[in-house]
Amino acid sequence: MEITKHDKSRLILPWAGAIYNAFEPLVWPIVRISLGLILIPHGYDKLFLNGAANTSRNPILHVFLSPLAGAYFIGCVEFFGGLLLVLGLFTRFAAAAVAIQMFVISFFVLWPVWGWTQRGMEFAIFMMAIAIAILIHGGGKFSLDSKLPREL
Question: For residue 4, is it within any domain?
């Protein structure tokens, strides 16, 4: 992928172009790792700290045979998906799972009481958008995916 060079003549602070160019390759890893680090503690809570019991009370989880099993599934997507995003391994699979989960959370769990700042819906939508961007971009140069012979 070609790195965009910032045109110094267009910058208000021309000297900043060198800084932007130097750090530009780190932008996608920062985005990918940040989303992963946000998700991991949520999944950890569900998988290892009994957070699944609270999550299983959500009526949407009745689509699973057991709401508790559904809560553990969500915990797996968050914990292991977040870990995969941090590592940049099977990045597109992890990002797709997170995007789907955030869509469901946004529009099937939080939507009935829609209000942009009510119950954190804006965060789930933001994480969905970031996951979609990562899905499209992939793991990038600074990922374990880049070491694999083929990528999704």
Answer: no
